[in-house]
C-alpha cells in the first residue's frame, strides 16, 4: 500500500483531477469555468456588464431555449436526436396567435398547443421505435410537417393581443436591487426542476440513462425500453410546445419563419453542456449552463457593438468544436 | 410470373418509381400538357425540362451525400458549403474590373471549388482523423459556415452581372440546360468511379464496419477523407449553379434546407442511413421524386408554401414502406396469398 506516502492535499488534487478528466463531470465543469471566465472578462471590458440584471437577462432572453434544451437532453441521453424542435416552436407560436385571434380563451389555447405537440412527439416516437425509422429521418419529417403547417396557418406575421398572453409576456417581477425577471423565467426553471427530478429520482430517468448506455442491455435487464424511448420524444414534443408558448410571450406574435435553426442551438447547448451525443452521460443542469454560455456570447457581441452578428455563428461553431474534441479526449482516456 | 412479380416488388427502386409514376399521373390529370416539350430558339422548354433543371443542384448534392451515407456518415454542412462557394465566386467577380471576362469567371469558379475542397478536408479531418460522429462533425461547419459566408459577403447580398457566369445557372447547350449536363457528368463520374472499380465496394465495407475493414487492409481513413471531400466539392458545384441562377450570393438563404432535401432524395432512393449499401440510381429517382413533388404542388394549384407538408407526407410514407416492420408484414401477406393459391408454394 502506498497510501502512506500520499498526503491528504495530494489526494484532494488527484480527486479534482479525476473529476475534470471524467466524461461525466469534466465537460460540465469546463463549461461552468468558461461561463464564469466570459462573464468576468466581459465585466473587465465593459462598465455595466458584471451586474445581476445582465445575468438575469440571460434567462429572460433564453427561457424558451432552456426549455428546448431540457427536452433535447432527454432525447440525446437515449442516443437519439430531435430536429423538429425549431419548427414545432414556430408552429406553437402560429397556433397560439391564430387561435387567440379567433377568440379562444388563453388557457384552452395553451392546453391545445401542449396536447398537439405532445401527440406529434408521440407519433415520432412510435415511428422511431415500432417502424425502426432513424430518429434523424423521423424528426426531419416532423420538422417538414410542422414548418409546412406554419405556412398553412398563415404566411404572414400575426400579432398577439390577448390580455393574458400580453400580461405574462410583459409583466416583470422585481427581485429587489433593480433586478427583475419575467414569468417565462419561472416557467423555464420549473421545467428544469421537473426534468432534474425525473432524470435523477425516478425509474423513468434511470431507464433513459440505461438506454443511452446500451439499449440491448436495458432490454435484457427487463427495463421498459420501448415505452421510455417513445416517452422521450413525447417529452421533447411537450417541451417544444412549452418553449413555443414562452417564445410567443417573448415576441407577442406568430411568424412562420421564426426559430429556423433553433434545433441546432438546442443541440449545441446540450453538447456544450457536457451531454455525450452517443447517449448515457449528461445532466439537464449542464444543458442550462450550455444555453447560458450561448446567451453570454450573444450578450458580449451586443456589448461589443462593432462585431457583427455573424460572428455569433462562428463563435458557436468554434465552441462546439472545442467541446466535442474535449468529450472525445475524455472518453478516449477512459478506455 | 409470380417470381418476376416478386423480383420487381422486392427491388429497392420499386416504391420510389411507383411514387414517381403516381406523381406524373397526378400532373397529367391536373395539367394535360405536362409531358409536352416545346422548342424555342433551339432550346427545349417544358415541365419535364423544368424538373430536371431545377432539380440539378439538389441531385448533385445528393450524389455526394449518397457516398457519405454509404460510409454510415452524414453531411449536414452541404448547404453552408453551397453558400460559401457562391459567396467566394461572387466576391471575386465583384472584385475584378471586368466580371464578364471568361478568364475571371474561370478563376472565380476554381477559387470556389478550392474553398469547397478545404471544407471537405475539414469535415474529413474531424470524422476520419478525430473520429467525431459525422452528424456532429458536420454540424460545426453547418453552424459556422453561414457565418463564414456572411463574413465573405460582409453581410450583404452580393449581386453580380457576368454573362459567362450566368451560363452555369440558366444557359443552354444543344437545347438542354447547362446545369443538367453538369449533373449528368458528375452522376456518370461517380457511378463509373465507384461501380466500375472496387471503390464502391470499399466504401460499402467502411460503412458496414470501419474497424474491420481497416484490419482487412482497406484504407478506411483515406476513403472517409475522399468521400467527404467529394461531397463538399459536389456542394460547391451546386452552390455555383444556384448562385449563377439568381446571380446573387445570399449567405443566409442560399441553398437553405438543401442538405435535408438531399438526404431525403438518398433515403427515398433506398439507401439506408445505417450505411453499407447504396444506390446512385436510387438517388437519381429520389431527387426526381422530390423535384416532381414540388412541381406537382405548383401545377395542382395547392399554395406552394404547403410543399413542406407534402414532403413530410412523402418521407413518412417512404420510411414506413421501407421499414423492416412493414416488410415483414408484407412478406407474411405474400406467403399467405401464395398458400391460398397453392401453386405459389412451389415457385417460392
Automatic annotation (TrEMBL), chain A:
Does Transmembrane helix appear among the keywords?
yes
Pfam families in the cross-refs: BPD_transp_2 (PF02653)
Does Ribosomal protein count among this protein's keywords? no
* Keywords for this protein: Cell membrane, Membrane, Sugar transport, Transmembrane, Transmembrane helix, Transport
Task: State one molecular function term (GO).
Answer: transmembrane transporter activity
State the signal peptide span. Answer: none
Q: Where does the source fall among the domains of life? A: Bacteria
Single GO cellular component term: plasma membrane
Membrane topology value: Multi-pass membrane protein
Q: Which CDD domains match?
A: TM_PBP1_transp_AraH_like
Q: Where are the transmembrane segments?
A: 25-44, 65-92, 104-128, 135-154, 174-199, 230-250, 256-276, 283-303, 309-330
Give the UniProt subcellular location, in the record's own words. Cell membrane
In terms of InterPro entries, this protein maps to: ABC_transp_permease (IPR001851)
What is this protein identified as?
A: Simple sugar transport system permease protein
Instruction: Give the species.
Output: Microbacterium invictum
From TrEMBL, chain B:
Q: Cross-referenced CDD domains, in alphabetical order? A: TM_PBP1_transp_AraH_like
UniProt keyword terms in alphabetical order: Cell membrane, Membrane, Sugar transport, Transmembrane, Transmembrane helix, Transport
Q: Please, which domain of life does this record's source organism belong to? A: Bacteria
- Keyword Transmembrane helix among UniProt keywords: yes
Q: Which GO terms describe its cellular component?
A: plasma membrane
> InterPro entries recorded for this chain?
ABC_transp_permease (IPR001851)
Q: Which Pfam families match?
A: BPD_transp_2
Which ranges does the record mark as transmembrane? 12-35, 55-71, 78-97, 103-128, 135-152, 172-193, 223-242, 254-273, 280-302
Any signal peptide, and if so, which residues? none
Q: What is its main location?
A: membrane
The record's GO molecular-function terms, alphabetically, read: transmembrane transporter activity
Q: Where in the cell is it found?
A: Cell membrane
- Describe its membrane topology: Multi-pass membrane protein
Q: Does the keyword Acetylation apply?
A: no
PANTHER family recorded: ABC TRANSPORTER PERMEASE PROTEIN YPHD-RELATED-RELATED, GALACTOFURANOSE TRANSPORTER PERMEASE PROTEIN YTFT
This chain's protein is named Simple sugar transport system permease protein
Recorded source organism is Microbacterium invictum
Amino acid at each position: 500500500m502506498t497510501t502512506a506516502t500520499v498526503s491528504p492535499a495530494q489526494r484532494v488534487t488527484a480527486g479534482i483531477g479525476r473529476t475534470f478528466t471524467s466524461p461525466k463531470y469534466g465537460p460540465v465543469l469546463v463549461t461552468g469555468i468558461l461561463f464564469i471566465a466570459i462573464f468576468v472578462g466581459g465585466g473587465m471590458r465593459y462598465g455595466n456588464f458584471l451586474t445581476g440584471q445582465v445575468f438575469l437577462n440571460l434567462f429572460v432572453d433564453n427561457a424558451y431555449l432552456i426549455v428546448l434544451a431540457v427536452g433535447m437532453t432527454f432525447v440525446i441521453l437515449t442516443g437519439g436526436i430531435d430536429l423538429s424542435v425549431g419548427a414545432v416552436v414556430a408552429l406553437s407560436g402560429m397556433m397560439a396567435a391564430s387561435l387567440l385571434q379567433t377568440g379562444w380563451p388563453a388557457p384552452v389555447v395553451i392546453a391545445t398547443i401542449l396536447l398537439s405537440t405532445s401527440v406529434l412527439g408521440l407519433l415520432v416516437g412510435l415511428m422511431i421505435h415500432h417502424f425502426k425509422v432513424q430518429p434523424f429521418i423521423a424528426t426531419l419529417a416532423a420538422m417538414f410537417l410542422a414548418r409546412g403547417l406554419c405556412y398553412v396557418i398563415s404566411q404572414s406575421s400575426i400579432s398577439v393581443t390577448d390580455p393574458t398572453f400580453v400580461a405574462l409576456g410583459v409583466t416583470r417581477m422585481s427581485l429587489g436591487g433593480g433586478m427583475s425577471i419575467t414569468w417565462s423565467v419561472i416557467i423555464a426553471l420549473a421545467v428544469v426542476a421537473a426534468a432534474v427530478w425525473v432524470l435523477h429520482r425516478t425509474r423513468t430517468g434511470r431507464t433513459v440513462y440505461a438506454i443511452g448506455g446500451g439499449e440491448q442491455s436495458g432490454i435484457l435487464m427487463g427495463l421498459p425500453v420501448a415505452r421510455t424511448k417513445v416517452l422521450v420524444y413525447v417529452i421533447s414534443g411537450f417541451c417544444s410546445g412549452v418553449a413555443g408558448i414562452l417564445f410567443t410571450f417573448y415576441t407577442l406574435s406568430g411568424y412562420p419563419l421564426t426559430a429556423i435553426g433553433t434545433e441546432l442551438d438546442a443541440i449545441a447547448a446540450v453538447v456544450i453542456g457536457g451531454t455525450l451525443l452517443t447517449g448515457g452521460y449528461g445532466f439537464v443542469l449542464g444543458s442550462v449552463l450550455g444555453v447560458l454560455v450561448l446567451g453570454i456570447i450573444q450578450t458580449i457581441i451586443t456589448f461589443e457593438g462593432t462585431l457583427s452578428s455573424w460572428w455569433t455563428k462562428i463563435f458557436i461553431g468554434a465552441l462546439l468544436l472545442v467541446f466535442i474534441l474535449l468529450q472525445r479526449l475524455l472518453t478516449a482516456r477512459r478506455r | 410470373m409470380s417470381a418476376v412479380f416478386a423480383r420487381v416488388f422486392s427491388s429497392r427502386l420499386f416504391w420510389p418509381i411507383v411514387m414517381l409514376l403516381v406523381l406524373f399521373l397526378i400532373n397529367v390529370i391536373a395539367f394535360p400538357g405536362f409531358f409536352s416539350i416545346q422548342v424555342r430558339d433551339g432550346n427545349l422548354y417544358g415541365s419535364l425540362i423544368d424538373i430536371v433543371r431545377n432539380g440539378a443542384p439538389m441531385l448533385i448534392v445528393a450524389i455526394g451525400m449518397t457516398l457519405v451515407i454509404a460510409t454510415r456518415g452524414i453531411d449536414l454542412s452541404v448547404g453552408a458549403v453551397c453558400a460559401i462557394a457562391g459567396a467566394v465566386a461572387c466576391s471575386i467577380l465583384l472584385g475584378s474590373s471586368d466580371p464578364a471576362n471568361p478568364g475571371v469567371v474561370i478563376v472565380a469558379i476554381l477559387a470556389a471549388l478550392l474553398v469547397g475542397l478545404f471544407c471537405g478536408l475539414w469535415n474529413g479531418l474531424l470524422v476520419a482523423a478525430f473520429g467525431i460522429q459525422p452528424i456532429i462533425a458536420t454540424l460545426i461547419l453547418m453552424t459556422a459556415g453561414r457565418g463564414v459566408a456572411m463574413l465573405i459577403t460582409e453581410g450583404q447580398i452580393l449581386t453580380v452581372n457576368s454573362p459567362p457566369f450566368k451560363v452555369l445557372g440558366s444557359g443552354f447547350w444543344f437545347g438542354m440546360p447547362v446545369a443538367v449536363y453538369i449533373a449528368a457528368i458528375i452522376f456518370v463520374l461517380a457511378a463509373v468511379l465507384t461501380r466500375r472499380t472496387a471503390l464502391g465496394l470499399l466504401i460499402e465495407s467502411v460503412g458496414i464496419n470501419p474497424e474491420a475493414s481497416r484490419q482487412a487492409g482497406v484504407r478506411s481513413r483515406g476513403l472517409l477523407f475522399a468521400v467527404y471531400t467529394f461531397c463538399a466539392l459536389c456542394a460547391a458545384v451546386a452552390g455555383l449553379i444556384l448562385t449563377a441562377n439568381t446571380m446573387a450570393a445570399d449567405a443566409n438563404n442560399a441553398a437553405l434546407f438543401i442538405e435535408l432535401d438531399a438526404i431525403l432524395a438518398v433515403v427515398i432512393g433506398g439507401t439506408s442511413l445505417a450505411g453499407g449499401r447504396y444506390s446512385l440510381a436510387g438517388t437519381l429517382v429520389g431527387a426526381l421524386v422530390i423535384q416532381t413533388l414540388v412541381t406537382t404542388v405548383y401545377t395542382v394549384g395547392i399554395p406552394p408554401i404547403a410543399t413542406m407538408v407534402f414532403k413530410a407526407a412523402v418521407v413518412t410514407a417512404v420510411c414506413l414502406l421501407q421499414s423492416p416492420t412493414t416488410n415483414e408484414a408484407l412478406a407474411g401477406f405474400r406467403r399467405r396469398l401464395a398458400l391460398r393459391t397453392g401453386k405459389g408454394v412451389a415457385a417460392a
